[in-house]
# Entry
Amino acid sequence: MKFFKSAAALLTAALLVMPAVTARAAKVTINKVIYSCNTSNHRASVQGCGDDYTIKKVEIPDEILYKGENYKVTSIASNAFNGCTELTSVIMGNYIETVGSNAFADTGVKTVKFSERLQIIGNAAFYNTELTSVTLPESLEIIRANAFKANHKLKTVTFGRNITEIGDYAFWWCEALTGANLPNSLKTLGVEAFKDCESLKSISLSSSLTAIPQSAFENCPVENIVIPASVKTIGEAAFCNHHTPSLTIPGTVTTIGKFAFTLGTNHTLVLGEGITTIGEAAFEECTSLTSVTLPRSAGNVGPRTFTRCYGLRSVTLAPTLTTIPASMFNLSGLTSITIPEGVQTIGTDAFNGCYYITTATFPSSLRTIQARAFSYCDDLATINFAEGLTTIGEEAFGSYEELDLTLPSTVTSIGAKAFYGAINIRSVKALGAVPASMGTNVFSTTTYDEAPLTVPENSVEAYRSAAEWSRFRSINDGTLSIMDAALGQPDAHDAYFDLNGRKVTNPTPGRIYIKTTSGTSSLIRK
# Structure
């Protein structure tokens, strides 16, 4: 008995160490095409044409005969016909299920008849061919990355109704392609899938997509974009340079990536309630856009959102915003702006170059106006600061209009040349008992010389002693204007007074004085 047990154990051990029996793959050439036959499952795979690059037409049969047995041809191997530049026509047998990577890349293929059982087209399978039209079978489920990339003559593609995935760059640089009606079965669209399809004017997006990825339709002159309610994310540069006149982004979308719609031609833009994040330069240089209302939910907005939207005349900002980001409306066509309560910071260059803004109104929540925020706003005639503002950045304001400027008592810092570009300031009223620290040349020389500065009672000496503030020729405490002071002086008839209200016997030529005549007064330059 022990002998038999030992023998059985030895037999088992021997079986464990014996090499596994593998199916033998045999190769056979039929009509210049090489096939690999799997003797285990009686399936065959197309391997290509060997070194014969002169083949012009490939017609793959349903089955081939090898040693008296039939083998179903179910696949085309990777690199099978790669580089066969003379190849122009491909007819696939009815059992082909997969086309491998680079199978027909860099060939002269002009026409393809696909198998009705085809499920997968591999990576770069038809990269850089001569195809002009493609009809994909209903059986197809997956188009891998680069599958039809750089097919420069491809004008039309008919998609089957069961495609679930189109890979990265799948139709990139198919510049003759005019339309893409994506089936509702499509769940995944790859990055740059249709990028640089320069003739692509018509698209229909799948109702199963949850994301439109980075640069999916970048540089495609799409004339009508309908974002399905299934979409939650629109990626970076997804529709950059589109030609849609009217665009609605539903509230089911929560995130719009940077540059998503840059260079668009839409005249109207509707942003649905529910959008929380709008990325950098998302609508930059949408020059035809005339008005925008940001939904209440859009509390996170990136810089340069509407930069160079020259036609933009009005905007309603979201009440959830705490920051107007840098260059948000730089060089836009806005005519007025009301910053909503809740905003604490207006970023660098936020409204720089908005030449047509006439009125700017600020909330009590505002603490900081950063550098050049309103620089080159040439038509700005009214600036309404609220108490609470602490910091005004360098070169913050510019205007050619006449301004009466009031600085809140809370302002503690004013940057260099903050109002240097506002060349027609008529008067300045500083409400702070303690002078705010100032950089150099905060105001223009004309403002220092001609605009009276009014400060709180008992603060005149503090301002006269403070750097930069002391450059104002006229500083008074607001209880009596300089003009009134001059008129109250003895011998006021035909007399001259400096801008501090002191009588001058011998006025210096070239300087500004108050001249009183017959009970009236006026500013003159001697």
